[in-house]
Design a protein that fits this description.
mainly alpha, Growth Hormone, Chain: A, two-stranded antiparallel ribbon, 77% helix, globular, transmembrane helix
Length: 527
Amino acid sequence: MITLKMSALKNKNEQSAQHAEHVEALSTSTKITWRELWEHRRVLAWCLFIFLLPINFGYENSTVGNLLAVDPFLDQFGVDVNGTREIRARDQQILNAATTVGLFCSAFATGIISDILGRKKTIIFGCVLCVAGIVTQYFSNTLMQLFGGKLLGTFGFGLGHSLGPVFVAELAPVRVRGLCLSLVNTMIVLGQWLNSAAVLGSKHHTDSLGWRIPIITQMVPPGLLLLGLPFLAESPSWLIMKGRPEEAAKSFLKFNGPRFDVDEAMTITTAAVAQEQELARTGSAWLDCFKGSDGRRTLIVCMVYIAQQFVGVNFVSGYLTYYFKLAGVEDALSIAQAAFAIQLFGNICSWPLVDRLGRRPMIVGGMFVMTGGLLLIGLISISQSQPALKATVAFMTIWGFLYQATLGAVAYAVGGETPSPLLRQKTYSINIMSATAVSCAVLQIMPYLLNTDEANLGGKICFIFFGLSVPMCVYLYLCLPELKGRTVADMQEMFQAGLPARKFKNYVSQGQIDIEMHKTKNLEREE
């Protein structure tokens, strides 16, 4: 009898949530306007604030590649190879391992810590660890000290990097969800550019400050976040989960403004939390990420992020400066700084497109163009002439622009919205762990492919990434669905029906039918 009552209550909550979402979706068939962006400015501002720690993610991703081109860093930690100072491949592996291990562990721990402490306190904890790691790196004098500082700092900002998209996905209205989630990559690219700017600004220092200043400037994002955290509201989902609905309603208003429909949001969130708590009691929540339609969702998200690694983002974003230096580019730091600025501009170009063109055209189209670009760069790099070098630098810069305007930005929209609400944090954690594992493999091999005393491939490394990206193009073309403007109920219906990816865009859900019927009835009443 109790089971029947729980089932009835669950169905009632699901129906109420779906009805509320369908009401919200009344206007999703039209393109988002600047007026709507202005109306949602409060939400966008909170998203940018929550995404401050991903700045450190981008900063850290570029740190090793940029510092490998800094003479004081090479003097202190490098060795002489044929008259040139280099960091040994093994030592590069140590530094890269700190980043990947820290991110992997934080991705696994985020869900556990955030469920216990709450989203807000988890971010505070991440900021404190991040600051401690940065201070340790600044005062380091050995590679192992740098390793320890990077491991600690990476775990700290990794908590914010893993939690941020899930936090925002719980709050963002359907109309601007894609833009809100793509802002993660904006902050990551901003961090890459800021790191390059800090390295360039410190190049006049001939002592250890030449590399210590770019390290300590990482303090700014977590510092700003700690200053503003007293004003940040807790996640409404977590508050409802802890039996504090009044505080959850206040959080919704704080994030969205006084005119926000709190009752609608509370209905949707309460239903989702009730289902998640019921699922958690079975003890199989992690396994459910790999079962049925949820398993398909997990695979889609993971493959989109793995595609970033296979297409060569670690080379163009992380090792760009080092490659320029090895290739003999004059003033490699300045050229790389300009290249990162162009990548940032490319990311900004994605803002109006992610909710206009949709996720699938931008990711699949971008992958095909970038894969062709890798083949072109590899062919040009066969020549060792000066014109070929200039052409390689130019095309790598264009490639970086295209990456940040397509796959780099839109992957975060896919990662935040594709998982079911019940498994969102767990699915995203699995995604970060899988992408980090692939990134670790790439970063461990790359020093041996690039260093002049090893394979010394230079731009010809693009042939390897070309071979890896071709099967990813095939997978994404066949399996990546279009979820632009879809509500949670729509997605649940389509995934459970097992629709092929190509049919998602034009599929008419029951919710859309209900909306059209609602419009028809209103017109009949007016007449």
